[in-house]
Each structure stands twice: as structure tokens, then as C-alpha cells.
Amino acid sequence: MEVKAITRFARISAFKAREVTREIQGMPALLALDVVRFSPKKAARLVSKTLATAIANAENNNRLKAQNLFIKEAVVGEGPTFKRFQPKARGSAGPIRKRTSHIKIILIEQELKQEKKAKKAAKTEAAKPEAKS
Q1: Closest Cα to residue 12, out of 82, 93, 73?
Q2: Across-strand partners of 133?
Q3: Three-class SS state of 39
Q4: How does pLDDT run across 76-97, given as a tens digit for each residue?
């Protein structure tokens, strides 16, 4: 089951936000949330909000456990650019580009290896016939 959350028109350039999303690719969701919360970048705060939203969507809408969620995809795309001008010397003007970005995080549910082993062991125990004495 895939769950996604998108933050659109975030006021940060996609280039800066991609640094943070590259760090959390493929991590368990709760571990990635801790990593992002302790990052000193502005983009980390925006990615953290998006990740928390994706986890909440998974828990409330799809009844998934947060411990079983992994980040499948964390993508930052470019949004529209606001174009402004700043006065320069001798009556000229210099362009200012205020960039925006769209942050998309997709989570998938994967059971942890320990839980898989426990379920497999329970199935084999149930399948064994009891020995008669």
C-alpha cells in the first residue's frame, strides 16, 4: 500500500530542498523523521512537515502502523518562479528570481524482518502435527 503527501509551492528552491530528501531516501519513516528534525536547514523543516503528514495519512486513512512504513520516494520538483526586479546602478535593473518547489513523499508498508520471522515461525508451529504418545 502506498501513501503520499505533497507540499506545493514551498518557498525554497528545489536545489536546496533536494539535499535533505536525498538523505532520507529508503529509510524507515520514523528514523527519517528524527534525522530531518535535527537537520539545521530550512528545507528540513518543510520536508519534516510533509513526512509527518504522510505518516498521519497512513495511520488515519489506511490503518497502517508507523513502525512498518518506509520511504519509497522523496522527490522535490520545481514550482513556479516569481520574477522581481531590483534597481541597479545608472538606472538599470537586475532580475531577482524567487523560486518555489513541490515536495512529494511516498511511503510504503513493509514488515520488519523480525516480524516476518515471528509470523513464519508461528505458521510452521501451527502446521506441525502433534506427536501422539
Answers
A1: 82
A2: none
A3: coil
A4: 999 999 999 999 999 999 999 9
pTM: 0.81
All three cell numbers of 55, joined, read 505518516
Beta-carbon contacts of residue 105 (< 8 Å; ≥ 6 apart): 4, 5, 6, 21, 47, 50, 51, 54, 71, 73, 74, 75
Cell of 123: 505458521
The hierarchical CATH code for the domain 2-127 is 3.90.470.10
Q: What is the mean pLDDT of residues 54-72?
A: 95
Query: Quick one: pLDDT at residue 74?
Result: 96
- What are the residue boundaries of the structural domains of the chain, listed by start? 2-127
Strands 2-10 and 69-87: unpaired
